[in-house]
Specification:
The chain has 334 residues and is of the alpha/beta class. It has a ten-stranded mixed β-sheet. α5 packs parallel to α6. The longest helix has 17 residues. The protein is globular, with a radius of gyration of 19 Å.
């Protein structure tokens, strides 16, 4: 009935337990199922880079511009220090502004909201209230991305009760040594948190949220990939193996690269904690891809603005911006 989700950017392999979108379909209210099918169909149609629609299908919301970790491959860690990325003052969206955002989303029929974006979502103490409010306002697909270190028993129970449909936990290692080298945190704590979350979900007799674990395949972690898949694939819904995407500081030209196809600006937007709205999820090119700020302009107006249309047209016409080339550009012949 529903074509399962496969992200074409940055993903090497998925290990699914059945069709996870079908699982969501059968575990939401009967009144929301038709809208969920329409949402997934619109998501797939965006591959044509044609009509962006009047509002995003998904909004990635950075609740706090901060993280409790400093991972080597993240722009907040070693990778960022080796690039032109500059840290910003910590900002927080806050409960009231998040409620206003959810109200705008609900009024415009947005089907999916993803809490976390580039910051650690569990740093926001009011997160369960935000998830619950999105549920009350009819947002069908409510997703959290986290590194899992703050996923204590109390927080796990609170967000399970709030009504997540999906949770994505970034792990990226199978041994203590690799995890601590790349993420610089407590591997045993992470394992305890994941297993306790799974136990609570079972205890509460919940089919949702879909539990997804991700693994970035780096030179340091590559030899652990198969063990990671073998260990987790029967315990969670999705084991997702991703390639490491390097933001290139070499300035390739449009003529030097293979054609880029990036449907993100037709599907989704990222809302940063300071109110900036960008049509890109990589965060590396944020300064060039912010279309406006929600403290000044409603989301719908930003999404439909001339600035947003120009960005989409630059991709469709292969007249790419430099930040898109640096992120997605593949040199011809490589």
């Amino acid at each position: 009935m529903i074509e399962d989700y496969i992200d074409k950017k940055g993903h090497i392999a998925h290990n699914y337990h059945g069709n996870v979108l079908e699982k969501i379909y059968w575990n939401i209210s009967a009144e929301q199922r038709e809208a969920f099918v329409a949402y997934r169909a619109a998501w797939n149609r965006a591959d044509a880079l044609d009509d962006a629609g009047p509002f995003p299908l998904n909004l990635d919301v950075e609740l706090v511009d901060a993280c409790n970790l400093s991972c080597t491959f993240c722009y907040r860690g070693d990778a960022g220090r080796g690039s032109n990325w500059k840290p910003r003052p910590t900002s927080r969206l806050g409960l009231e502004k998040t409620r206003e955002v959810i109200d705008q989303c609900a009024a415009n029929g947005l089907p999916a909201i993803w809490f976390g974006a580039s910051g650690e979502g569990l740093l926001e103490k009011r997160l369960p209230e935000m998830i619950a409010y999105a549920r009350e306002r009819g947002i069908i697909d409510r997703i959290l991305t986290t590194n899992g270190q703050l996923l204590s028993q109390d927080k796990s129970r609170a967000i399970l009760e709030a009504g997540l449909t999906r949770i994505s936990i970034s792990v990226d290692a199978f041994t203590k040594a690799t995890y601590e080298e790349t993420r610089g945190s407590d591997y045993e704590n992470l394992l305890r948190n994941i297993h306790e979350f799974l136990r609570l979900k079972k205890e509460m007799r919940l089919e949702l949220p879909i539990v997804r674990l991700t693994f970035v395949d780096t030179a340091r972690s590559h030899e652990e990939k198969d063990d990671f898949i073998t260990y987790w694939r029967d315990l969670v819904d999705i084991v997702d193996i991703q390639k490491q995407i390097f933001y290139q500081n070499t300035r390739l030209s449009r003529d030097e690269i293979e054609p880029i196809r990036c449907a993100y600006p037709w599907r989704a937007a990222v809302l940063y904690a300071n109110g900036d709205l960008a049509l890109c999820s990589s965060h590396w090119g944020r300064d060039d891809l912010v279309m406006g700020n929600i403290h000044d302009t409603p989301i719908r107006e930003i999404w439909c603005s001339e600035k947003a249309r120009d960005l989409r047209e630059s991709i469709r016409s292969h007249n790419y911006r430099q930040c898109c080339i640096n992120c997605m550009g593949k040199k011809k012949g490589d």
